[in-house]
Predict the 3D structure of the following.
Amino acid sequence: MSPHLFAIYLDDVASCLTIRQRCHIVLYADDILIIALSLTELQRLVNACESELCSLDMLINATKSACMRVGPRYNVVCSSIVAGNQNLPWVDKMRYLGIFFINSRNFRCSLDHAKLSFHRSINAVFGKVGRLASEDVVLHLVDSKCMPILLYATEVCPLSQSDIFGLCHVPFSHFLFKMNNNDIINDCCPFSALNCQVNEYKTAKPASIPDIVILEAIAKCLRHRPK
C-alpha cells in the first residue's frame, strides 16, 4: 500500500482515540509509532489500533514490530505487549526514520549506522574516481554527497562529546593524503571543521523537512516525559 493510501486509511486510527491518547501515537508514511508512559497504557493503545485496523481488514505485522523502554527502569524485565495474538519482543535498539534509538535511562541515539553508511559512501565515491581525480575534487564530492549522511538528524539527537569525537574521526583523510600529519590534514581537509558543523547543527533550528520535524517531536516527548 502506498503511503498516501495508508495515511487515508489510518486517519481513522487517530480519530478513534481520545485527545490525550493522540499525543502518544505517530502516524507517518507507512509506520505507526506509539509512545506510552506505562505498559497498561501501551497495551491499551495497541489494542485500539489493532481494533481499528481489523475493521479496515488490516493486521499488525508482529514480525516487524517491537517495543523499547526509555527511562530509569529501562533494563528491568517486564511483561510482553500482545499484538495479533503474538508477543512483541523487547529490543535494545530501534530504527525509525533512519535514526536508531537506544534503550537507556535518558533519550539516546546510536550513530554507528550513520558512520558505517558514511564510510560506505566514501568508498563508493573513491571507488569511482580513484586517483584519477585530484584531492580537491574528491574532498568536494565527499563533502557534498557523504557529509549529509553523517550529519542527518544530528540536530535532534542528544550527542555527548565522545559521540562528536567519534563523528569527527575520519581516517579516510589520512589515506587520501598519504600522510599521518594531523596538522597538515586539518589545514587542508574539511573534516577538521566537522566538530563545528555538528555544534552548528545542534544549536540551529531543526529543518522543516517532515522527517526531521517528526523526529524533533519524538525527541521532545521522550526528553520531557514525567519522572
In short: The chain has a mean pLDDT of 75.
